[in-house]
Amino acid sequence: MPSDLDDIALAALFATPPGTLYLNAASHGPRLRSVQAAAETAVAAGIAPWRLGEEEWIASIEHVRTLVAGFFDGDADAVAMVPSAGYGLSLAARNLPLSRDEAVLVLAGQFPSNLLPWQQRCAETGARMVHVQRGYEHSSHAHDWTNAVLAALDDDPGIRILALPHAYWHDGTLLDLDRIAACAHARGAALVLDLSQSLGALPTAIERWRPAFVISVGHKWMLGSYGLAYLWASPHWREHGEPLEQTWFAREHDAAMASPLRPPRYRPGARRFDAGGIAHAEKLAMAAAALEQLHAWGIENLRDALQARTAAFDTVLREHGLDDWITPNHAPHLLGLRPPAERLDAVAKALTEAGAVFTRRHGQLRIAPHLQVTVAQMREVGGVVVGSVQQS
Ligand SMILES: Cc1ncc(COP(=O)(O)O)c(C=O)c1O
User: Fold this and answer.
1) What residue's CA is closest to ligand 1, atom 3?
2) What's the whole-model pTM score?
3) All domains in the chain, ordered by first residue
4) How far apart are CA 317 and CA 284, in angstroms?
5) Are 158 and 189 in contact (CB under 8 A)?
6) Low-confidence ranges of the chain (pLDDT < 50)
7) Looking at ligand 1, which atom is closest to the CA of residue 229?
8) CA 170, CA 334: separation in Å to the nearest integer?
């Protein structure tokens, strides 16, 4: 675990305005100074667009692709760039086979970007949606999504697609994707993962999970800009998938520019899924700076450093008997704080007065720090929560 001094040095890498305890990386990642500088340089360079050569431009796209691949299985051919998670999930929903007597499994309350595309596809095909509830009848723990998913798979042999996260967006409850993937594959079902709330904070295990598609936004734990998201496609879909839209960008460039009578070949690998407009100089520059920093930290070190922050907060609450307020076995970087309903306003008010920024939704406060908050500050945040109880 880094010392307090290391923590202060880490926090200094971020441009977050002083006086703010930003605990909302699950909404939008905090801005690294290096990302801010890259954005400013790219905007300044935009006054002379002719100076950025085409080769340099393509190289900057491929650089980001390679950096993103490092969070999956290291294969840049597997990665495409798309504008949003919803776009990537719509692409997955459009491609995966699904018929009338089959079903798509999602978690109840799942983020709409990983729900709407499946609802649409089911409406078109006549297939069913299976909304898994926590505390499913066969599951012994109210927070246990994993056993709820496994029980639903056992109950419903029609499930063909599982569209899941690694960490639940409300409160960071983790899903055991190793167990779920093994069970899904044994039944011939495809796995689609929305890792928007974990990529850049938790390692992935593509070889074990064997997903069909993986999607993540780039502006949360990946610390980049809004409007650039990442898609990983399995070898099968890289060869056989159809993009959502037709752009010259996804085709062999020179051939496409010759305005042929028939469409030229797609570019290799998942590049066929690259969306129009993603090669945006400022967004690419910001992504590259963010991804370089994430790789320099190393995903395991980063996970542990984020864990140290949430653990410091949890410890203070536990010392005061408030264990029940914290999501059990939450992800290292993300938790839900669920005070009794009559205390929620007081806790939220105390945190806001202390300068904390967080999301309040579904009767809980989502606490999602990044490295711009020190472990010592997270202890203080825990103290604010405890203090609000003692005052009331
Ligand atoms: C789990 C999850 N998926 C996706 C998104 C974003 O999706 P989109 O890029 O479609 O807005 C969010 C949050 O904004 C999220 O929490």
Assistant:
1) 196
2) 0.96
3) 4-30+298-391 (3.90.1150.10), 72-221+229-277 (3.40.640.10)
4) 41
5) no
6) 1, 136-139
7) 9
8) 9
Residue type, 320: H
* Any atom of ligand 1 within 6 Å of the Cβ of 14: no
Q: How far, in Å, CA of 203 to CA of 54, rounded?
A: 34
Residues across the chain = 392
Output the CA torsion 106→112→118→123 (10° steps).
120
* E-assigned strand segments in 95-195: 103-107, 128-132, 159-164, 190-194
The per-residue pLDDT for 2 is 55
Residue 163 · residue 118 · CB < 8 Å = yes
Q: Is 314 in the pocket of ligand 1 (CB under 6 A)?
A: no
Please give the Cα distance from 288 to 99 (Å, whole number): 40
Give the pLDDT confidence of 315-370 residue by residue, as tens digits.
999 999 999 999 998 999 999 999 999 999 999 999 999 999 999 998 999 999 99
The predicted pLDDT at position 392 comes to 65
Nearest CA to ligand 1 atom 7: 85
Atom number of ligand 1 nearest to Cα 165:
1
pLDDT digits (tens, 9 = 90+) for 183-240: 999 999 999 999 999 999 999 999 999 999 999 999 999 999 999 999 999 999 999 9
